[in-house]
Design goal:
Layout: E1 7-14, H1 22-38, E2 43-45, E3 62-63, E4 66-67, H2 69-80, H3 88-100, E5 103-111, E6 118-125, E7 131-136, E8 159-161, E9 164-168, H4 177-184, E10 190-194, H5 200-213, E11 216-220, E12 223-225, H6 236-240, E13 245-254, E14 260-266, E15 270-277, H7 280-284
Parallel strand pairs: 1-2, 2-5, 9-10, 10-11
Antiparallel strand pairs: 1-15, 3-4, 5-6, 6-7, 8-9, 11-13, 12-13, 13-14
Length: about 300
């Protein structure tokens, strides 16, 4: 490994979206970036789909073999509030990253200019305000497949940072062993895990990944509250069935030995700060280096088609 900068001050932003409103969600994210930057954060990490929101509990009128026109109206609203990359929203976020002089990772619903498919994407900006990477979720989970398409290119982009290579898997991508290995093969020291998983099993998952990859895992989860849904959606019965707090958060940072650097935060919006000791990463790999001395490339091989 090349020499790493000793420490990284990180900010993990556990927040709500301004649901179905890309303009207001972007403005809120930009303000949170500036707030974290003012407190010295060098890396600022948001959850998945903060812009415009994670549409928890909604079906968009789909059932097997049929769909409702009222659901189509809600889907079109979500489509209209998804963002094109690059576009005005990424320019605003890039400016905030530049003002904060920090790397910024944020989850968005992405739409493209040449067709109408949406993608669950994560984008990374440099401290100079440059859009560095776009990672699209490989396989949307469960009913997410009715909303987002599969990534078709540019798998597993890596950001070269002063603290080593940084990669991202979105939510249940982290349950894909070969996807994790694809990041490990690139030598990541910082594993970004933007997600919507507030169950206790997820905490076990991120600890395992930290130990398996001997890397820092940045667990960025969101808060979703029933009161935050727009009143004029066409599925009031679906929103009524959502818990008052539909997603409780649980954001935290885990070190390369599987220990909490910051304890999980539940049921509230908060920015978590931590100073990471990056020298722990190479030190932790003394007896287990997953794609180094503890691998057997003569027996096992992973080929990634990018």
């Amino acid at each position: 490994m090349r020499d790493l900068k000793d420490t990284c001050r990180i900010a993990v932003v556990q927040c709500t979206s301004v649901m179905f409103d890309k303009k207001a969600s972007t403005e809120k994210a930009a303000q949170l970036i500036r707030e974290a930057g003012a407190k010295g954060a060098e890396l600022i990490v948001f959850p998945e789909l903060i812009i415009p929101c994670y549409p928890y509990g909604m079906t968009f009128g789909y059932t097997v073999g049929s769909r409702k026109e009222s659901g189509r109206l809600d889907w079109k609203r979500y489509y209209d509030n998804s963002i094109v990359i690059p576009g005005p929203e990424t320019e605003q976020l890039a400016q905030a990253a530049k003002e904060a002089h920090a790397y910024v990772s944020i989850g968005v619903s992405e739409r493209v200019e040449d067709h109408a498919t949406l993608y669950n994407s994560n984008i990374v900006f440099s401290p100079e305000g440059k859009l560095l990477n776009v990672h699209r979720k490989l396989k949307p989970t469960g009913a997410e497949r009715l909303v987002y398409g599969d990534a078709q290119s540019n798998y597993f982009p890596i950001t070269d940072t002063p603290w080593g290579p940084m990669g991202c898997l979105i939510c249940w991508e982290s349950y894909m062993p070969l996807a994790r290995t694809a990041l490990y093969q690139k030598g990541i020291t910082l594993y970004l895990a933007p997600n919507t998983n507030d169950n206790p099993e997820w905490q076990d998952t991120i600890k395992h990944i930290a130990i398996e990859g001997h890397c820092y895992v940045i667990n960025a989860d969101m808060i979703i509250r029933k009161e935050d849904y727009p009143d004029d959606l066409h599925c009031p019965e679906e929103i009524a069935a959502v818990n008052d707090i539909a997603c409780r958060g649980g954001s935290c940072v885990v070190d390369p030995y599987g220990h909490y650097v910051t304890q999980p935060v539940w049921d509230k919006e908060e920015i978590l700060y931590a100073d990471l000791d990056l020298q722990q990463v190479p030190a932790s790999r003394m007896e287990f280096d997953v794609c180094g001395h503890y691998s057997r490339p003569d027996v096992l091989e992973l080929n990634v088609y990018e």
